Amino acid sequence: MTAPPLLEVRNLRVVYPGDDGDFRAVRNVSFSLGRERLGIVGESGSGKSTTGRAIMGLIPRPGRVEADAMRLGDADLTRLNERGFRRLRGKRIAMVMQDPKFSLDPVMTVGKQVAETHRYHFRSSWKAARTAALEMLEAVHIRDPERVYAQYPHQISGGMGQRVMIAMMLIAGPEILIADEPTSALDVSVQQQVLAIMDEMVRSRGMGLILISHNLRLVSSFCDRVLVMYAGQIVESCRANRLHAATHPYTRGLLTALPELGNRRAELPQLRRDPEWLADLPAQVGTAP
Fold it and tell me: In Å, what is the CA distance from 163 to each residue of 145, 234, 236?
């Protein structure tokens, strides 16, 4: 018997009003997420991050989020107000942003920020929250968590800050983690460490992971399945290990533009866009073969 999806999104639309009419930042996006690692790739402005923020209820006004269906287990996300989303964020679904410098409070120690999440969701005492925070910092492979607990964000490195963010997002035990470009501001060696930590936590807890990235090679090697977005819509869905065999011209153009060691090119390839790619595509729900 197939397990029900953790998250189901059907015909998600994110619309911003403008002087020349509505701008559709996300158009008819449909997918489901099980206990797997799902990658969403595309150029800057393709709607990747907006899709993740819409699921989290983080689209500011006057933006509008519309969907035929958007369900997190038994929770209908299309019917939630801000108060309802606050109950879900961190507890059932969490999001790691791109750069910890902009996500961590600069005037509060990192340990207290992790502990505060535990206190909010479990109504725990500061003592219990501190113990849970120290355990979580250790779980994300932070050495000497007691010392790091007492430090401020400016006193830790970017890689350490991203580990703190992962600890903060996972301390309440969510079912789904959305990671929005979590390694783009990090050195290559640190990127692999952070990805390994996320992979370990997701697998050990049986979670679902959505990894938003523009790095096709990273996603193809790390994820189980990939969605390719262009101009706010999904143009292709495939198994991550079959990304190299993608057929849509846009995906092929992205793959061709990837640099290759030992292959010197006389000219850099250019992505030739077809106006037909902007046509609304039918919904793509479920897991691709």
Answer: 11, 30, 31
Q: Residues with Cβ < 8 Å from 230, sequence gap 6 or more?
A: 42, 43, 46, 250, 277
Please say whether the beta carbons of 237 and 42 come within 8 A.
Answer: no
The CA distances from residue 31 to 138, 192, 202, 210, 258, in Å, are: 34, 27, 19, 11, 26
For the chain, list the domains and their CATH numbers: 7-278 (3.40.50.300)
Joined together, the tokens standing for residue 183 give 């390694």
Q: Give the pLDDT confidence of 159-181 residue by residue, as tens digits.
A: 899 999 999 999 999 999 999 98
**All residues at 6 or more sequence positions from 63 whose CB lies less than 8 Å from its CB, including other chains:** 14, 15, 16, 25
Model pTM score = 0.90
State the amino acid at position 236 in one-letter form.
Answer: E
pLDDT at 282: 52
**Residues 74-90 as b or e (16 or more Cβ within 10 Å = b):** ebebeebeeeebeebbb
In whole angstroms, what is the distance from residue 76 CA to residue 10 CA?
12
